[in-house]
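Journal club prep, shared notes

We agreed each person brings one worked example of a sequence with its structure written out as tokens. Mine is Family 15 putative glycosyltransferase. I'm keeping it raw so we can talk through how to read the token line rather than staring at a rendered picture. Sequence first:
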Amino acid sequence: MDCRNHPLQQTTTRRAEKPHARPLFTRRGDKKTELATFVINDEIIKSNPEAGSLPLQHTSLLSRYFGIAKYNRGKTINMAIARPVRALGLAAVVMWFFFIWQVLKPTSTIKRPGFDFKSFERDPNLDATGEPEGILTYASPEYAPGPKGTARINATLLALVRNEELQDMLSSMRDLERTWNHKFNYPWTFFNDVPFTEEFKKKTQALTKAECRYELIPEEHWAMPSWINKDLYKESTQILKENGVQYADMVSYHQMCRWNSGMFYKHPALANTQYYWRVEPKVHFFCDVDYDVFRYMQDNNKTYGFTINLYDSPESIPTLWPETEKFIAQHPEHIHENNAMNWLTDKVRRPEHNRKANGYSTCHFWSNFEIADMSFWRSKAYEDYFQHLDRAGGFFYERWGDAPVHSIGLGLFEDKNRIHWFRDIGYQHIPFFNCPNSPKCKGCVTGRFTDGENWLHKEDCRPNWFKFASMG
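Then the structure, token by token:
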């Protein structure tokens, strides 16, 4: 049918000839009732909304026009907006609100595939932080520089540093001298695999009233051991590099990790030294510390102190834990009854790390900051363990770091209650922080773990340490 001959279309063309159909009203008592008005084939049809119906003879035309007709007792119809129209209207409203929500909602956190990170319910660094419990010794005239400083115990600040890192080392020294060592004047001991320049010596000594010592690492402590197959080393490091392991092809990095793991405390310059505080170039200290941290370690029977606890790259240490298990099987007598085995082997929080590292969670104390008693490294348990690892070759065939090696040794062979979190020492090694809630701290954001990408928060292993050990 030609749409122009449709009855409704004809009505439309004739409307100009008819009086305008407008709503009519009838009064019933005090109620005004609007009558719906339709024009069909020149006939004005009125429908009372209270009756809700139209004469049956107009049903077919109206149903075609409106798309819906509901019969009432077989004689009349109730008129309503067509269902498709209602559905489209509702969909439009829903889409509008969805669009507004998308625009106004907070930006979602970008997460790496497969990562479901759950942070602390409340980071303990947000709580007010004071000095640690226990015996504390404060600054006094007995800590004066030189021979008058009789209160100092057998300890040193220790740094492995290259001549070209002078400016970054000076930055670290300024921070630590300002926040702590100007009160206690403990000596600085610097190590290098080549002689220090006169410029390095002059500028570092100028930053402190304490004694500075400059030591050369013996060749036999630094060189690649004779039992390492150099061809296998080259092949292995190439594979590590292809797998994205950082510094894999830098032999000096492998040498440094080995030296820090089991050689530094054998240096003749440290033969009579018990405690050390490791300080690296380009780190920052934010909080004033008013007590002698070395005396704290001694007087409160602590072996090791840390600030940051992280997950390691499992690709760099795939055989470290299997070799550790071999050692444990051979020397069960070395395992401490109050060990931190659960922390070392947890597979709940980062299961992919445990799988790739063959049973090791990869949790470790970040050893660029460590305050420790060298008596532990010199113990038979740790020395036997280091010798086993050294002969296995993983410091060169893989990239075993001193942080996981130290941490596994401590977690297995030491009482976990003798490991202390220095929560009151504000510290940064890019990109991670330890920033307590204390009026003594300036320059860091309370509770901030990293100022890098948000996904870096997943690297925080403190929740596991606090779960399986303590905050002590």
